Amino acid sequence: EAKGKGKNQYHHFTTILMEKMEQQLWFEKELEIATLNHQFKLYYQPKYDLKEETIVGYEALIRWMHPEKGIIPPNDFIPLSEENGLIIVIGKWVIYEAISQLNQWHLKGYTSLTISINLSAKQFADVKLIETIQDAMIGKVIRPEHVELEVTETTALQDLDFATNILKDLREQGYKISLDDFGTGYSSLNYLNVLPIDIIKIDKAFIADSIYNKSKQQVIKTIIQLAHVNKMDVVAEGVEAYEEMELLRTEKCDMIQGYYISKPLPPNEAIELMNKAFEIVEC
Ligand code: C2E
Ligand code: MG
Ligand code: MG
Ligand code: MG
């Protein structure tokens, strides 16, 4: 009996495995089609300056508008695109699209806005990354100072010397470099000394529940001080409540992002926020 059951389980297991592989292949094919057919869209989340009390820029966040499955978030397809190399094509599109969008906003009169673009490790291994960014800037009124490139520890970690050189080169041209998800990696402090960084983004894990958590508050405070000593700006991610914003204001955090200000929005809705007299009221 036991033998029969074992065989059934084995059978069951291979069936699941086969289904998984089929799904994976299907998804990979779909992603290729999406890349060819431009099924991607950038959403924009505002960055709010606590001193100026205004939106100073937007972060571009990719969405896959799948014809049947609807909106697919980046965490569900960016890792796969990194594995199969499609990230180079997708990432190039993101760079062009985000830079063009910011340029349009500048032409409309919002001339101090910045754009943040997320880069993944594989894009750093691409020798054409700098060229791609420069090409996207051709014929635009915006300057490199308006463009922020977001990297994570893991982005840089894959080939630290290579990544450091590319970042230094871009920074010399005026582009801003920000270290995303700060505090979640193994050696955030190390990278702070090695990489050429303008902005630190405190990961949202430290902001969540920070109102009730004294040790999180201490971490936030320390990161902000550390950044300022090193002449860097600080952005807090994932701010969802008024109290969190006030806590960050007290600690002299420069900018915040999060659902409290706005979730990521399609471009038209995102820029509309600029027209509303921005009233942050306690709720
Ligand atoms: P990230 O760069 O750290 O972006 C922040 C993520 O937090 C976004 O998720 C955003 O929607 C979400 N978020 C913003 N405010 C709040 C909040 O108040 N509460 C909570 N719980 N979440 C908030 P999203 O858009 O799903 O993106 C996830 C990750 O995917 C990004 O993390 C980034 O690493 C990656 N990603 C997004 N767009 C691109 C892209 O164009 N290229 C590459 N290479 N990666 C991208
Ligand atoms: Mg980011
Ligand atoms: Mg982040
Ligand atoms: Mg991230």
Automatic annotation (TrEMBL):
Keywords: Coiled coil, Membrane, Transmembrane, Transmembrane helix. Residues 24-278 form the EAL domain. It comes from the Bacteria. The chain holds residues 705 to 987 of 987 of the full protein. The keyword ATP-binding does not apply. This is Diguanylate cyclase.
